[in-house]
Amino acid sequence: MDVMAELKPIGSLYGTGDFQTGLCHLQSLWAAVPEPKADTLNAYLIVEYGVAFSLKVQDLDQAQEWADRAPVFAAKRHDMGEVEFLIGKVAFERGQTEKAKEQFRIANAKSEGRAFEGKDKRYKLLIG
User: pLDDT (tens digit, 9 = 90+) per residue, 62-87?
Assistant: First the structure.
């Protein structure tokens, strides 16, 4: 399965603002990824896209569902704090400040601050 090829048209939907259609395609793509999903190259990006699309439509429950899928990928990635940053981002948007702080601190330590580059400045401000 070529996840990157499958994500390309979904990314275009994000660019045109068709978030609901994108979310539908992401759900279908996620269902098509064989188990264990963490063994499929780039499957983690589906989770990141799911969070991004869900946040755009302000569906915080769906964003949480996507973020809850992220931890299984931590061991398969180079572990630069991406998983913790993603979970922290959703927690922040949900108003779960303590959880966001905890996750952002882990992401900050693992990435040596790089996880926050080019991101919403409020995230970094939360941890000081």
Answer: 999 999 999 999 887 777 899 999 99
CA dihedral 62, 58, 12, 66 (to 10 degrees): -20
Q: Write down the residue that tokens 């499957």 correspond to.
A: 43
Compute the chain's Rg from CA coordinates.
14
Q: How many other β-carbons are positioned within 10 Å of the β-carbon of residue 89?
A: 24
CA angle at 105 for the pair 103 and 108, rounded to the nearest 5°:
110
For residue 69, the number of C-alpha atoms closer than 13 Å in the C-beta half-sphere is 22
To the question of pTM greater than 0.90 for the whole model, the response is: yes
- Site of tokens 């952002």: 104
Separation of alpha carbons 48 and 63, rounded Å: 9
